[in-house]
Write a structure and sequence with these properties.
It holds the Pfam family Ank_2. ANK repeats lie at residues 71-103. This protein is an all-alpha fold. 58% of the residues lie in helices and 0% in strands. It has helices at residues 2-25, 43-50, 53-61, 75-81, 85-93, 108-114, 118-129. Helix 4 (75-81) packs antiparallel against helix 5 (85-93), helix 5 (85-93) packs parallel to helix 7 and helix 6 (108-114) packs antiparallel against helix 7 (118-129).
Length: 130
């Protein structure tokens, strides 16, 4: 009986504090709504990481910004990091900024070097000469 009462009381406490936490965590003190802040990788960058050239090309045709950061990195950073050379060339051909820095201060060239992505590194070096 004592365990049952404690279990029910614990469940009730969790339910009550969970509701309060949800209500208070949706906004900061300065009234910034968390629903406008994205903590997820964009669909465009997901397609780049997966190496889905056709989807990346279609999204660019539909007006996707090739320099829009997701999780602090631009699409060119993801292409360089994961050695997606065909996508890297497509991004550059469509105006991706080769010298753009991520929120950590790294360029696409640096990501290619850190990831040992030699093919991507060659493409980036050529693009930087132009």
């Amino acid at each position: 009986m004592k365990k049952t009462i404690l279990t029910v009381a614990g469940a009730f406490m969790l339910a009550v504090t969970g509701v309060c936490a949800n209500e208070s965590s949706t906004t900061f003190n300065d009234n910034v709504n968390l629903s406008t802040v994205s903590f997820e990788l964009s669909s465009f960058c997901k397609a780049i990481v997966k190496g889905d050239f056709d989807t990346v090309k279609k999204l660019i045709e539909l007006g996707e910004d090739v320099n829009q950061k997701s999780l602090g990195m631009a699409p060119i950073h993801f292409a360089a990091r994961y050695n997606k050379t065909d996508i890297l060339e497509l991004l550059i051909a469509n105006g991706a900024d080769v010298k753009k820095r991520c929120d950590k201060g790294y360029t696409a060239k640096k990501y290619a070097e850190l990831s040992n992505a030699t093919e991507a590194l060659k493409i980036l070096k050529l693009a930087m000469k132009k």
